[in-house]
Amino acid sequence: MIDPMIGRRAFLCGTGVTFALPWLETLAARLPAPLRTPPKRMAIMVTPNGMLPSAWHVKKDKIGKARGEWQPSFTLAPLADRRRDVSVLTGLANRQSFQGDGHYAKVAPLLTGKKIRRTGGRDLRNGISLDQVAVQAPREQNKSATLLPSLELGCDPIYPVEDMGYSTVYGGHIAWSAADRPMLKEIVPQNVFDRMFRRHEAQNDPTRKSVLDAVRRDAKRLSQRLSARDRRKLDEYEDAVRSLELRLEEVGKEGDAGSALRKEQRPESGRPRDYRVHMSLMLDLITLAFRTDTTRIVTFLTGNEVSGRNFSFVDGCAGNFHEFSHHQGKKEKQEPYRRINRWHVEQFGALLERLAAVEEDDGTLLDHSMLVMAAAMSDGNKHSPHNLPVLIAGGQFGDEALGRVMRSRRDTPLCRLWLSMLQRMGVPAEQFGDATEPLL
Amino acid sequence: MRSVSVVRLIATLLLVPVLRAQDPASAVPELAQKLCGECHVEDTDGDFDLVFLFDPGVIKNGEYTEQLHLAVQRLRSRTMPPPDELQPADAERRELTAALAQLMPSQPGERVATVRRLTRRQYELTVQDLFGVQWRAHDLLPEDAFAHGFVGQGDVQNMSPLLLEKYHDAASEVAKLVLADDKARRVLFAEDRALAETLPQFLAAAFRRPVQNEEVTERLADVAAMQNQGLPAAQVEHALLRGILVSPSFLLRPEFGQEDAPAQLSAHELAVRLSYMLASTTPDASLTASANDNSLLRHDVLIEHAQRLVQLKEGRAFAGDFASQWLGLKQVLTATADFRRYPQIWKHSLRPSFLQEAVRFFAAIVSEDRSVLELIDADYTFVNPVLASHYGLAKVKSGFHRVTLEGKRRGGILGMGAMLMTSSYPLRTSPVKRGQWILTKLLDSPPPPPPPGAGELPKDDKPKDNLTLRQQLEEHRKRRSCAGCHAEMDALGFALENYDVVGRWRDSMHKLPVDAKAELPDGTEIDGPVALKRELRKRGDDIVRAMAKNLLVHGVGRDMGLADEAEIAKIVAATRAKGDRFSALLAAVVTSPLFTMRDIDAADTRPGGGE
User: Fold this and answer.
1) What is the CATH number of the domain that holds A378?
2) pLDDT tens-digit profile of B331-355?
3) pTM for the whole structure
4) Would A293 be classed as within a structural domain?
């Protein structure tokens, strides 16, 4: 029997400021034993406004041959102890984001590999992001679907402004289930928690079918009279009804995996004022989602593109993040910029620590996952789409792929990484975006 | 630009044999010849040729419309003709803009708004009005996406599984609340009336339209089936309510048009547009009655309802929704200033008071039916004790009060903290942002985004290398690539330099006198806000147009494009003819075919309603 206790250390110490979260610990202790055959999971964390390249990249003379033989750069320093488990990928680019000004044209297609249409709203067009491709693929390996097909997380509500003629919607979503369907992300920790664990209400609700049937009838009735454009909106509605139904059915079928949790204290309502607390809770929830096999696919947009968040809690970083990212080569802006970048890397490290502390089968959650951290541009000052900052970690990438600085030729399709991940998730894909062969 | 010229070249080459009969350049109107001809007619270096736009033989594809937009934008933003060339009179500029706008191709269906969903605020108010309960969504429903400055635009409203689940949770909560409240419960479940009696009326209210028989009978059958299952009454009632509140007929606002004239909105659809535009909620009993007997299709009835709805809470309901979106007023709530230099911001009520002031001011124009140009210039404002002392006005008792302003220093949105603080940085004002604010919001001619590497000014307005911030900005403008846009933008902003970061009046900064002198692109010299306001009042057409256009975007749910300009021009003319009164603007907007029609380009177009 494996000890179901999630390691205490992971939650109390990390590389930076960490907050003790008694609720998560208590909850974890009460969970049933982890799964016997661990499923494969993936989580992609995307951070805004790029990363200062000079502080990000590992110098050539700091790279050895063997696994773990690389000396972290300034920005990557928080990962020093995880050198064996993390790889730095260089040379990757999303070619479909080469054109189009501003931030949104870079971030919206990051996980889709498609060129987005420039529009303030009408006829949005992107592609399907790899996480949703994985969701939609028939599950060869994992016959039982998880309670949530995927989890879309974020910290910011959608911003009210367009960016260079690109819709607000492009800036706030990285997960897209169809060319014109961004997946709403959840930004309130309590809501994420409820969605995973507050199942009692929906469970055994005998009226469920009646309610959804009525709703579906209404949709059908409307649909017959609508224009093609509006019908697409209604299709979306009907698909959502179907998803909800499947999910509620799943809740009914599922045993009591989460029932031990629901009486415990939930995270507080609302968005935490302190961004560090917000981030920390989100990382806890990802860990908990994987641990309970509530979902296997997570995308996390830590902040919307063009974020002007004030990182005053990082020494010397009081001010506007986006304005720091336009550093114009000036030291006084590059310094806070790279420190904010490093803080984000620290958070990625904190996620690894959390996952590594949870034992499962013959390893840990980290061994059974693929984790990615990426930004949609490299140098925020130039909005450069080349040589994107990308980190990978997690045993599912395979030993060969980890603990190195993996250099690819300039503008190697980022989609090759996404294709590798799809294949590792068991999706029989042979191409994705502009990639026809996997990177790893 | 290059690719555009290539397309044009190809298009021209293909069409040459057909069009040879007539010289394409002759299609360019005289005014365009006069104002732009020197550089842009039969333009030999292939930069931008108006012949391409006016040539009837040219295919109206994407490149064409892009060029057309650019031409109109340049004209409207007064960056063309260039400052050193002959400047057109305002009327000429309008005429040429209209001539260009008219070239915009339009096809049936292209100007139909995508089906809209209730916004979070609309959902709350609708639920409150349906049941008479107080209810807030808080975190149950997400914040809405904006498009063209407004929420509730169908094009960016998506329904994802997560969102539907949230609606399901919200419906569940509302149903619980309703069933626990005797009065609210009786709306649908009354002791003395059968469900078969109450349901049709309730469904019609919830769906905001007459309902078909089967919509009622099917639901009654659902209820009977659940009862037969032996489910407790409370559970059945909860399920019925939930099913109505998650229904697409409740959440969405579909528009099908009249049965025999699908291009025209039906009376009920018109009622819904009107009610959500002006009151953010479902049509009330009186409006519904006018929809039921179709009298709403008459312009006089429609106008009467519009004037009535807009008065809700002395205009504050409408102002708080429309004006705060149009003018971005809520941004002041999150604006920051350096607390060492501006300790005033420690007063937590300051920023909410700024918002209140602007909303109440706009509401006064609406409810007292004043000239909408008072937005620029007025001799009154609304202050509470916090604002009175902040602005240096006479003390007032607690709460907000209308005060008459002595002199012209304040008065109008440009003298309000809500505008002045959102257009400043923590350590300095930004003439650029302030100018951009005026151009974008009030004149609807947003300057294009700065080119890459445009450079940046310091964050602080302390003089540097013996240059004031203004002198540094003027250096910047010497670059030709910057001058075009900054000439007007900066001038408008400089004139507001008498207001500091938090909107207080100042005569000096860093021991130097404030320099609020500026030269507008047409050569007019202005000094300070009073002169600026005087000049802006001369742009009445542009301001009325901006307001009408934004009201239409908000009310109709789509962006207004060049093809809509001709109808908007009619609204402007009607408003101006009546002294720019708000009531005139509102009446012209709600009776415009842009508002009363579902598809203004459809073949079955016929004049809607009578007077």
Assistant:
1) 3.40.720
2) 999 898 988 999 998 999 999 999 9
3) 0.91
4) yes
